[in-house]
């Protein structure tokens, strides 16, 4: 797996099962060039995110691990931060308070509904309407320019719930807004192990992103060490097929690239 990075991983500080050290050792065993930690940070009180009081602990632990393993692997400091419209200033404050290499922006809520964990409200709206609400939030998130990476772009399909109509126009509009924002989209391989049984985003979506020249990175969304770099060979193969030849890297929120 040399020449690859995995920037989307969760530790015990949020909802993952392992500590940073175990994760780094696994990443080294798997031959990654870089491992990035991205524990959940959320302005709403949820059980799956790090407590605000623990943010300095997270920074401290990552700096320690980085120093210890620097000769073997590049350790990157990221967060997966929930976007909420109207709360941009609070988000900006959190981002600026941490020495981050990158910020993944994710939508896990429509209003107060945590739709990727709680299935109770599916069916309340036509799926076309649900998708429109979700992508409206994705567009606002990209346009906020707060984030480096757009997390699991089509996570609204997680439970294999699909729109009634062809929404290609909505995806194309969203891709243009992402391109204009300068954000990178992650190819989140965790989707293959979710009920949708497909990468997030899937092939048709990636083709639209490629047509708009939106850059990508490959991530696992690992919550357990054995999920680090899961399904990466298939992800590289798919990106090649679509026409991608490189992935984006981040250091102190500056971009670089790696050939794939
Ligand atoms: Zn997420
Ligand atoms: Zn995640």
Describe this structure in words.
This protein is 33% helix and 18% strand. It contains seven helices and nine strands. It has helices at 20-29, 55-69, 88-96, 127-143, 168-181, 203-211, 232-242, and strands at 5-6, 34-41, 74-82, 102-106, 149-150, 184-188, 216-219, 246-251, 254-259. The strands form two sheets. The protein has a seven-stranded parallel beta sheet with strand order 1-2-3-4-5-6-7. Strands 8-9 form a two-stranded antiparallel ribbon. Helix 4 packs parallel to helix 5. The mean pLDDT is 97. The chain binds zinc ion (2 copies).
Q: Tally of extended strands?
A: 9
Beta-strand percent range = 15-25%
- Terminal CA distance: 10 Å
Q: What's the SSE pattern?
A: EHEHEHEHEHEHEHEE
- Which molecules are bound in this entry? zinc ion
Helix amount, in percent? 25-40%
Name its key features:
260 residues, alpha/beta, TIM Barrel, 7-stranded parallel sheet, two-stranded antiparallel sheet, 7 helices, 33% helix, binds zinc ion
Summarize the structure.
With 260 residues, the protein is of the alpha/beta class.
What topology emerges from the helices and strands here?
Elements (H helix, E strand, L loop, with lengths): L4 E2 L13 H10 L4 E8 L13 H15 L4 E9 L5 H9 L5 E5 L20 H17 L5 E2 L17 H14 L2 E5 L14 H9 L4 E4 L12 H11 L3 E6 L2 E6 L1
Helix pairs in contact: 4-5
The structure holds zinc ion (ZN) (2 copies).
The site of one zinc ion has 5 residues, from loops.
